[in-house]
Amino acid sequence: MTGTSGEAAFLVPGTVEAAVEALGAAGAVALAGGTSIGLMVGQGLLAPSALVWLGRIPELSVLEEADGGMSIGATTTLAALAAHPRVRTTVPALADAAASVGNTRVRAVATIGGALGHADPRQDLPPALLALDARVEVAGRRGRRHLAIDELIDGFMSTDLGPDEVITAVRVPLVDGRRSCYLRFTPGSADDYPTVAAAATADVADGVPTAVRLAIGGAGPAAYLVPEAEELGGVPEGRWAAASAEVAEAAARRADPVDDRLGSAAYKRRMVAVWARRVLERCLGTEGAD
Ligand SMILES: Cc1cc2nc3c(=O)[nH]c(=O)nc-3n(C[C@H](O)[C@H](O)[C@H](O)COP(=O)(O)OP(=O)(O)OC[C@H]3O[C@@H](n4cnc5c(N)ncnc54)[C@H](O)[C@@H]3O)c2cc1C
User: Fold this and answer.
1) Which atom of ligand 1 is nearest to the CA of 54?
2) Using one digit for the tens of pLDDT, what is the confidence trace for 3-13?
3) Is residue 83 domain-shared with residue 169, that is, in the same domain?
């Protein structure tokens, strides 16, 4: 199906293969909920030759539990993600991140594929998905491939996607005993972008964390993992609070923030330490212990 949107052609493919074919044309861009693209086109930052709307491709709207994970189609809206009972109970960090984005109107149409494709470092979903060790399936003319979140988003508003490639799904592993938590801090209104965001997962067996992951958003060109969090695995309960504080300081040292309306770089770096410690304490169950 074809129509026109201003000077850009408006294409409505019915399959992933047709979308990939359409995106192969020079200047064509994928369109999902349109919440970011609409602004960019409106401000003259983007002048696509064609908008390839993904909203009529059945494969992209599937959200199901399969093969030990949640498989989330790229056009799943953030509202649907936030409200999904299994997402809320198995991977609450993702449900909470989705529920934090913008406002009701944005979440009603913005999609998980668009949230990754936009690649703004202030966004809520990338740190949550990074902590959850999610992988992204991408389809292009050369077939399908799978990427970690920090392989897909490779810099400030930059992705590894080729011009003909489309995100088809995000796969989040489900692990018995895994806790996940997401916290964001904004000094402005609740629907503003976070100044910093922190997400953590903790695999807990017999009351002891065996594996911990921590990811930070808003404090660098892209969300980043904090490898020092792995050192929390096996730490005895009496040391959790002190060890979490050390990891939080490591997270702040790894930050590479910039001054902007959400705060100065120095302020953001301190906020990383504060919110990293809080999210670790929440995930490990030591919140309020000190
Ligand atoms: C008022 C407002 C407030 C906001 N506040 C927040 C906030 O607090 N936190 C936050 O995280 N974000 C916020 N956002 C940004 C929001 O997260 C993004 O606009 C949204 O997630 C983009 O999703 P979309 O489906 O609308 O994508 P679109 O706007 O359709 O596309 C965005 C980008 O992704 C690409 N794309 C879309 N789908 C795919 C796909 N399947 N494969 C490959 N590329 C694709 C497009 O080509 C485009 O480059 C806000 C946006 C607005 C307008």
Assistant:
1) 41
2) 444 579 999 99
3) yes
